[in-house]
Amino acid sequence: MAGALLKIDNVSAGYHGQDVLRGLSLTVEEGNLVAIVGPNGHGKTTLLRAISGLLRLTGGSIQLGERRIDRLRPDQIVAAGVVHVPQGDMLFPEMTVLENLQMGAYLPSASAGMAQRLEEVYTLLPKLKERHHQVASTLSGGERRMVGIGRGLMADARLLLLDEPSLGLAPIIIDQIYEVISALRASGRTILLVEESAARVADKADRIHLLDHGEFVWSGAGPELMARPEILATYLGG
Fold first, then answer.
1. Mean pLDDT for each 10-residue chunk of the chain (238 residues)?
2. pTM here?
């Protein structure tokens, strides 16, 4: 039986002396997809930034497997197996799709198996193989988002952090992105996903945590959340 891959214990973090996260605790089991939902501006992205080392904690600890990682540099956290796919595209616009993907395997630990992982990415995202020599700036929004996810996979992640992968995309493209995420989940990858819409993840996540003003106000299974209209109305506007 798989155990906990990520353990967040009583974590606080923020900006300019003001905590955005206030004593959060969270466990992500290996092979699970866990979703963080909640209103914009209430700490979801801040939590991912804290996990990936882009933001230092003011309290608590973060552990990956048996190793504490919150005191490591961001590059050391990547090397430990945590890959953060941020909001938006964040690509190198004048590089090709292939070159962007190869940038995901820049660490020595990832470069050794780069060719094999590239084929795995192309199998999962066949559109990227069709576009592998195309410059990133000429891709559609959905294609750019897929390149971002593919680049994250090239790093051979143990834990994949996805920050609002549907942001700014048309509904039909969002469906395609979530088909990819479902395939990743089915392949056994461990994913921590941030999303504003609970409906998009209700039938995909093993567990959902509702974050409001830097604190978890509800946790449970997706169907349970969708059956609580008072919670949806209070925190998610629907």
1. 88 95 96 94 94 97 97 94 89 96 83 87 93 95 92 90 92 91 92 93 95 94 92 78
2. 0.93
Task: Give dist(CA 225, CA 206) in Å, integer.
Answer: 12
E-assigned strand segments in 16-149: 18-29, 33-37, 57-64, 67-68, 82-85
Q: Mean pLDDT in the chain?
A: 92
Q: Is the sign of the CA dihedral 119, 86, 143, 6 positive or negative? A: positive
Q: How many CA atoms lie within 13 A of 219 on its CB side?
A: 11
State how far the alpha carbon of 217 is from the alpha carbons of 28, 105, 223, in Å: 17, 37, 17
In the block, which residue shows the tokens 């959902």? 208
- Cα–Cα–Cα angle for 161, 165, 166, rounded to 5 degrees: 155
Residue 175 φ/ψ, nearest 5 degrees? -60, -40
- Asked if the 32-50+85-236 domain carries CATH number 3.10.450.50, the reply is no
Q: Which two tokens stand for residue 122?
A: 């192309």
Instruction: For residue 166, give the nearest of 137, 129, 193 by alpha carbon.
Output: 193
pLDDT at 1 (0 to 100): 44
Domain positions in the chain are: 32-50+85-236
Lookup: tokens for 13: 């973090």
